[in-house]
């Protein structure tokens, strides 16, 4: 229509233009709706699975490694709840009044134990190249979703804050993943290895009535979490590194445990592969999960928008310095979940008189304390 | 979808009749901040999302409605009446909106109604006793009538008594604590400096603020936290993490030496416990975060769960004093502080804190107050800080 035209020619083109425009508007609306619906459905598709992961339910999981043996006691073994009561290091009753069930106060040596565990674990992982971090414990719910959790699902594990679009974190994995959201990292920065300390909050909805007293399942706890951002080709090997670090830590503390390659039905949407460490808890008479190490490949990074720019040899540069970006891979692993560790230490190191020995590596981080002794009431 | 919640005071007694009405009076609870007589209009709850409020009209029809309280402070009304001048002066000095006149009026009324109730009960018992003996049918009939009237009268009076007691309780709980005689009266500019330690450090180079320093040292991240959580949130990194842990470890060992029992506490507590400590979880501009779908809040200080540790208890004297050093994360909305142009760590929504808490006998609290401030002065001097100690004013 830019050229010189007869009036009738022009009029025909104007009509044509108008029809095309109306058709386009309708189609563009359809496109938006389709794209939104496609996005919503596709986001439900779980991450792919590592070929070595066993297929099936809980009983299909494979034991990768066993370390140590169940301790042998020549006296009746107590559980951590009983031990803690006699040692005056917990209070569950007052917490039930003040907050509700599955809350607790730690007192006296249990406080030293928590601080010793955090201090020791942090120094161990810093030695292995992890950057220490503390994180927000209130985050936007969109960030929770992007990490693969469902804040508003039925039986959600996530506490929401009233009157806001914010939630409490159930793990530092969330704010750490979020630290680089919507970013393009330069390749030279990778791998980024963080050790994040935070309090964690979980509703444990759907776990009511699971008759475990004490610290095994609680609404609030302290945890040191390892998190890695890396190049895709390296995530398998960093997964191995993370589980090795966990195994080293728990061996150093003298725990008996097995490392399990979790079967497909236990993976949860984000994980490509997940290794759990289950430690022997003699008071409970069974193995209990003390840590979990997941390789989430690009599931979280595609949602959080975390990319890196691979460095390219200069001859293949079409535009100056701008190659295509790729999504990073993310991994997370528990370095220390305080309540489960306290259970393991109390139950495994209990003595006949009700006292508990502190394992050597922790003593320098607990002012030299060697033993927790019962208090005379 | 956000759930809108009405002030979550569940009805103290169950009823199949739920009424949804705007509550025009804030809960008459001990207010940490000045409590206004005409609090803001509250939003209605959706039927499925919040417990209903039972609303009761006051007998005086003052236009406000009293809410059945979830808990009651043990208030010494007689002491208030016997010391009303001192209480009134204190209310004035503290700039509080508590209504002492109303409290005294309600107390008198309540006493009178209580007397009537007692008298009617006596009469009813007398009638019941008379009916035990041998009586003429007409006599018996009269007594039955009399008994019936007394009973009806009693029921009405007893209902009035309950309403009066609730309203009295609500009003009296607004009265602020009494004040130590040495506390200066007035606003912020009237506070007294008790002590000064050290001097401002002298620098022979341009001084930077913590925000600038932290950025260059790569020990904070506020930008990422603003994306992930919002403003006034932060990550600590590298040596700042060691600094936090060092401070906590050191301070804890110092206070343990001074006889304090270390504690970690729940950071989610029932909102009633928050109120009982003197905070207003659901006031306008509240500092308190609430949990959606629950009658729970996040703590702004470990003072709350530590105070709650012994709630509804009778402690043996030999246990006192109880001295706790409680470590917790603290969460504050800082509502009303928006726009105070302070960047960095000065005013944040979440932080770690070690708090000392003492339960003691009444005669000893002044001296434990002195002990606590001495401990603080020792700690901060040891760290080489320059500071001044202010005696806080009545208005706050």
UniProtKB/TrEMBL annotation, chain A:
Keyword terms: Ligase
Highest taxon above the source species: Eukaryota
Entry protein name: Serine--tRNA ligase
Organism annotation: Citrus sinensis
Automatic annotation (TrEMBL), chain B:
Coiled coil: 103-174
Matches recorded under PANTHER family: SERYL-TRNA SYNTHETASE
Single GO term (MF): serine-tRNA ligase activity
Gene Ontology biological process terms, A to Z: mitochondrial seryl-tRNA aminoacylation
Keyword Nucleotide-binding: yes
Gene3D superfamilies assigned to the protein according to its UniProt record, in alphabetical order: Bira Bifunctional Protein, Domain 2 (3.30.930.10), Serine-tRNA synthetase, tRNA binding domain (1.10.287.40)
Species this chain originates from: Citrus sinensis (Sweet orange)
Positions that bind L-serine: 301, 332, 355
Keywords from the UniProt entry: Aminoacyl-tRNA synthetase, ATP-binding, Coiled coil, Ligase, Nucleotide-binding
Keyword Nucleus set for record: no
GO cellular component: mitochondrion
Signal peptide: none
Record's protein name: serine--tRNA ligase
EC annotation from Swiss-Prot or TrEMBL: 6.1.1.11
A Pfam family per the record: Seryl_tRNA_N
Domain Aminoacyl-transfer RNA synthetases class-II family profile: 257-396
Amino acids binding ATP: 332-334, 348-351
């Amino acid at each position: 229509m830019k050229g010189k035209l007869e009036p009738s020619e022009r009029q025909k083109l104007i009509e044509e233009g108008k029809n095309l425009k109306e058709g386009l508007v309708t189609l563009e609306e359809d496109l938006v709706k389709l794209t939104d619906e496609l996005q919503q459905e596709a986001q439900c598709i779980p991450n792919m699975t590592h070929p070595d992961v066993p297929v099936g339910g809980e009983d299909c999981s494979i034991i990768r490694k066993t370390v140590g043996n169940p301790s042998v006691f020549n006296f009746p073994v107590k559980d951590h709840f009983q031990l803690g009561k006699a040692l005056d290091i917990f209070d569950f009753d007052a917490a039930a009044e003040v907050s509700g069930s599955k809350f607790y106060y730690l007192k006296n040596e249990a406080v030293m134990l928590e601080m010793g565990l955090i201090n020791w674990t942090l120094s161990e992982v810093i030695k292995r190249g992890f950057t220490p971090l503390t994180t927000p414990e209130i985050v936007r719910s969109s960030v929770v979703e992007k990490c693969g959790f469902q804040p508003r699902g039925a039986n959600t594990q996530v506490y929401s804050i009233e009157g806001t679009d914010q939630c409490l974190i159930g793990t530092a994995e969330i704010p750490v993943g979020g630290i680089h959201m919507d970013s393009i990292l330069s390749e030279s920065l990778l791998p980024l290895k963080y050790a994040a300390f935070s309090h964690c909050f979980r509703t444990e909805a759907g776990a009511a009535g699971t008759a475990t007293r004490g610290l095994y399942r609680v609404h609030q706890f302290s945890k040191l979490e390892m998190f890695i951002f890396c190049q895709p080709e390296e995530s398998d090997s960093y997964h191995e590194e993370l589980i090795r670090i966990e195994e080293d830590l728990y061996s150093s503390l003298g725990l008996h445990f097995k490392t399990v390659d979790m079967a497909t039905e236990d993976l949860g949407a984000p994980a490509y592969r997940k290794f759990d460490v289950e430690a022997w808890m003699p008071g409970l008479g069974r193995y209990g999960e003390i840590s979990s190490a997941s390789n989430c490949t690009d599931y979280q990074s595609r949602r959080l928008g975390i990319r890196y720019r691979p460095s390219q040899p200069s001859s293949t540069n079409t535009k100056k310095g701008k190659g295509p970006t790729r999504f990073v891979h993310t991994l997370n692993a528990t370095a220390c979940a305080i309540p489960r560790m306290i259970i393991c230490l109390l139950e495994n190191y209990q003595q006949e008189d009700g006292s508990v020995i502190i394992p050597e590596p922790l003593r320098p981080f607990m002012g030299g304390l060697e033993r927790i002794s019962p208090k005379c009431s």
